Amino acid sequence: MRKVLFWVLLMGWGGALRAADLSLQIVDLQGAAIGGATVEVRDLSVSRAGETVTTDAEGRARISAVLPLEIRVSATGFDPLVERIETGKAGNFTLRLRPATLHTSVDVVVRDVPGTGPSVSSAVEIDKSGARTVYDAVDKLVPAAYVTRRGVMGLGLGIGNGVLLRGIGGSPTTGLLVVVDGRPDFMGLMGHPIPDFYTLSDVEMVSVTEGPASVLYGNGAMGGVIEIKPVRPREGVHTELTTSLGSYYTGQHRLNHGARMGRGFYNLTAGVEHTNGERENASFRNQYGTLAFGYDFSEVWKASVQSRYGHFNVEDPGTVWAPAAGQWSRVGRGGISVSLNNSTGRTWGDWQFFSSHGHHMIYDGFRSVDSATGFRLHQNFVVASRLTVDGGAEAARYGGRANNIKTAYDYGEFHLNEGAGFARANYSATRNLLLNAGVRYDYNSLAGGITVPEFGATYRLGRIYSFSASAARGFRNPTIRELYLFPVSTPTLKPERLWNYQGTFQVRPVRTLTASVTGYYADLTNMIVSNGHYPNPKYDNIGHALNRGLEANARWQPVRRVSFNSGYAYLRSTNLAPYAPRHKANYSLDVDAGRLFFSLGGVTVGRTWGNTAHTQTISGYTVMTLKCTAPLGKHTSAFVTLDNLLDRRYQVLYGYTMPGTNAAGGLTLRF
Asked: What does the alpha-carbon distance between residue 544 and residue 168 come to, in Å, rounded to a whole number?
């Protein structure tokens, strides 16, 4: 089920705070009223939640609050809308929400102050969970997701940095796509993301799409997408500094500084992460920074530039049965994206150029440099009273070169080109029935062309119930690593393919309770697997799997300052991937006690396989995390996090014992 979160920011600058009466009407793109939409108000001046109201049958709601404020609107069957309104414009507002394109999605929102009161949407704040990175947050908050790791911090390379969604992802992760600021982010030679660079310093929102998103994002989005949207500053100048230190000399130190004045903005983030590790030879150190600029040429055209660079060093201590020393990896990566956004009443879009590059050094002598450069155009149009279409085109060139300085072996230099065009349509057949369809043609210079479609429908049964169903095709092209690098390489590989069918039923009997159940059936074919034996190993498109699953989520807020969240995912597969659990549950209790906010969360994971041959079994486990946050003044708050509260001894990767109870504490300063 797609759980939708709408943000409308109404902010002030340079004047005294004053009360404002706002009259809102929530409508769709055809002007039809959306009754039963929930509007939550947050007073930004004191970072506390205000009233929560529900729109009437005409889609209207009236609120009275102190500016600047934040309004959150949630409704079934619509995509997010972000809009800025200045302080002096209080009065009547009509908010037009766009129909959703149907994928199961979980929006995870980073907030600058935890414990801001009730949340009526399905979004779950990362900061509450005690997550250290984006991948950590996805693992804690999305039941169908599972992240492999081997220690307290530092995912590194290879199988230690994988993420699986509904059992799909691979090792390394090539079946899921990470999108940063609208651009695909991956290592050009190996084809997988580098998760240690996805820190929380420059994150406004994380959106996880479960199921194929290949029509919109193409290669790599076969099993789903993790979208990371960067921070954009509010009006005025803002600075936030967070520092923490804990067990095993584990620390995170982050700076976020930005300003929006007039038509322009800038934002700067920087950070350092480090740990000595819970075992010998398990240290990790990461330095990173981002810089963004933007300028509004008019109400229609807005431009921005986003750049980032990071460098980390990570050690692999080996398994507990065969400890190792000197197994290090050093990685540096950077990237830049230039965007031109446009928005009018009947069309809106984003035109973007992006480029990323990296260098990898590994203790065994492996050295590589890689890059990915391309552009992406995406435009939406209101064609008729009930019809909205969007489409676009993109092209990219990626690759690099590699060698081994110890063996003097040159792997060579390789590059691939990709180009694609896509189109989608959303049609409101009736007030309660929404239909969507889309298609993409993608061409790879080696794998050739592939066409992927998607179809979906949502039917709202009044204000309480809704049902959605969808069918979508996904794919991933073979990576340069599989095609050319290392002894196991096969230049004749074809794309992996997937057909996914799913249905979701959502119920909201009262404003304080939302629950949903999703069932899916995924048919994976042409899977790339290692075939043959030394000295003639190779890859072949001979793998096949049928993944069937059930997911349930619930969010209940019995009183204003207390909320419960829970989720469960069940997976059954004819060819279960290593480290993919059959059962996984996430749950949390959040309590805002005024001067103290605490969140108690847990993850329960069933047994997993530790290898592709299914001869190694990893036992299930339960891990609890407690985070307490207390404001010390208007600009300062302190927090303490206890991880593995029950002191369980468990493994995520076969042979790597995870740490017992460990703690961290820190301060956040805002000015």
From this structure: 12
The pLDDT tens digits for 74-104 are 776 565 555 555 554 556 777 777 655 444 4
Residue type, 538: K
Q: Tell me the C-alpha distance between 466 and 476, whole Å.
A: 32
Q: What is the pLDDT of residues 128-186, one digit of tens each?
A: 778 888 888 889 888 999 999 888 888 888 776 789 999 998 878 899 999 988 888 99
Encode pLDDT of 612-658 as tens digits: 888 899 999 999 999 999 888 778 889 999 999 999 999 999 999 99
CA separation for the pair 93, 84 (Å, rounded): 12
Taking the C-alpha atoms of residue 606 and residue 574, their distance in angstroms, rounded to an integer, is 17
3-class DSSP assignment, residue 567 = strand
Tokens describing residue 532: 């043959």
Going by the DSSP 8-state scheme, the letter that residue 168 receives in this structure is: B
**Does the structure show a pLDDT above 90 at 480?**
yes
Question: Coil, strand, or helix at residue 157?
Answer: coil
* Angle at 406 (CA atoms; ends 402, 410), nearest 5 degrees: 30
Question: Is the pLDDT reported for residue 242 higher than 80?
Answer: yes
| Phi, psi for 376 (deg, rounded to 5) | -145, 130
pLDDT of residue 338: 96
**309-337 burial, b for 16+ CB within 10 Å, e for fewer?**
bbbbbbbbbbeeeeeeeebbbebbbbbbb
Cβ–Cβ < 8 Å for 75, 90:
no
Sign of CA dihedral 606, 611, 612, 616: negative
59 with 35: CB under 8 angstroms? yes
Residue 88 gets which letter from DSSP? G
Highest-confidence segment of 452-466, 525-539, 544-558: 544-558
Cα-trace Rg, the chain: 24
Nearest 5°: CA angle at 94, between 89 and 95? 105
Phi-psi region of 103 (alpha: psi -120 to 50; beta: other; left: phi over 0): beta
How does DSSP classify residue 484?
T
- Partners of 664 in the β-ladder: 246, 641
Instruction: From residue 123, give the alpha-carbon distance in Å to each of 63, 207, 351.
Output: 22, 9, 28
Look at residues 635, 638, 642, 641 and name the one whose alpha carbon lies nearest to residue 660: 642
- pLDDT at site 200: 84
* H/E stretch holding 328: strand 328-343
What's the rounded Cα separation, in Å, for the pair 653 and 611? 10
Alpha carbons 239 and 269: distance in angstroms, whole number: 10
CA–CA gap between residue 487 and residue 320 (Å, rounded) = 29
Of residues 240 and 72, the one with the higher pLDDT is 240
Residue with the bigger pLDDT between 276 and 109: it is: 276
Three-state DSSP class for residue 134: helix
Distance, CA of 56 to CA of 36 (rounded, Å): 6
DSSP string, 3-65: ---EEEEEE--SS--EEEEEEEEEEETT--B-TT-EEEEEETTTTEEEEEEE--TTSEEEEEE
What's this model's pTM, rounded to 2 decimal places?
0.85
For residue 335, is pLDDT > 80? yes
pLDDT at 621: 95
d(Cα 330, Cα 359) in Å, to the nearest integer?
Answer: 8
Contact 157, 191 (CB under 8 A): no
